């Protein structure tokens, strides 16, 4: 019998609505390691759904680092960073990231989500203005709301629109923040970081970039979008994640020493939530070593990206660029349009041996539902070819192609 009491009946009603719309989902359960081929719900599938861009989730050197740190330092840090939970290994990771990113300082958060939300909400206040791309990540939106600053949303990648909005608030006393994703997670396109940095400079605004999907993917050795656009020294706040290409968990903020020390004092997730277990910090240190020592992983990632996109395009799929932004990264959406059909397509792909996430409204605009694919450096050509066979076969059967 259901344990839902009448107090929560409205939740059940919403779930029923989702079921009717065909966008209700169950969690797929991974049994074993996150890899190019994985076992979900007891079925072996080619995995085009994870953010494990460089195959680091199960890399032997990262596992070894985690085990060694656990042996040496235990499993938990025991406190928030500001009380008693700052371990040497946390600082070692932060120094490593700062050097990698060519900035003065870095602070690590529990996740990319908390890094964004904690930073945006603490560096701005009621009198300030946030100029945010309409497709920016939810954690930026939440951070913006928590800051109570006035939020001005510019059209996706529309630098001229951003300038219009900046002009409107130019003479207001508050601080202005221009913020964009480095790589947009649903369409795989790259934010105009260089042009927005120009604008920020022109109007005296703070410039911030969220590089969750760009870290380990764009720029020299995966240094991110700021490196990709040669914008060193022109972006005040760089956020990255340790949860995607880096293969573990966490987020970080890079910038000036004062920015980082300010976050020590004001960013609420830093102040009120316990720091990483030492094993996670050790894992990430090993991952940054690998970005430098095995750059061929990133080359393989881009080779696979080019191959897979080109094959999808010649098969006749809409991979974006018509009614949606054009992907420029390993994230390749297959635009279907209707939410329900998209979810059914994703389900049929799974049954045929391919995991590719169906994404519908409200995560993407109504009518622009898609199956999102993400290749990794570790997919073999044979696996990608098999994935293409499954995609085209299933799409033809369902009248999508
Ligand atoms: C995934 C993602 C985040 C959140 O990172 P986590 O480390 O998973 O919390 C933030 N911003 C963007 C653009 C993302 O894609």
Question: Can you tell me the number of structural domains?
Answer: 2
Overall shape: it is globular
Rg calculated over all Cα atoms:
22 Å
Q: N-to-C terminal Cα separation, in Å? A: 44 Å
- Share of helix, binned: 40-55%
Instruction: Give the CATH architecture of the largest domain.
Output: 3-Layer(aba) Sandwich
What's the CATH superfamily of the largest domain, by name? Type I PLP-dependent aspartate aminotransferase-like (Major domain)
Q: State the strand order across the main sheet.
A: 3-9-8-7-6-4-5
CATH C-level class of the largest domain: Alpha Beta
Structural class: alpha/beta
Strand content: 15-25%
Number of helices: 14
Question: What hetero molecules are bound to the protein chains?
Answer: pyridoxal-5'-phosphate
As for the CATH topology of the largest domain, it is Aspartate Aminotransferase, domain 2
Enumerate the spans where pLDDT stays under 50 for 5 or more consecutive residues. Answer: none
- Elements, N to C (H/E): HEEHHEHEHEHEHEHEEHHHHEHEEEH
Mean pLDDT: 97
Strand count: 13
Task: Note the main sheet.
Answer: 7 strands, mixed
EC number: 2.3.1.47
Pathway: Cofactor biosynthesis; biotin biosynthesis
Pfam families: Aminotran_1_2
GO molecular function: 8-amino-7-oxononanoate synthase activity; pyridoxal phosphate binding
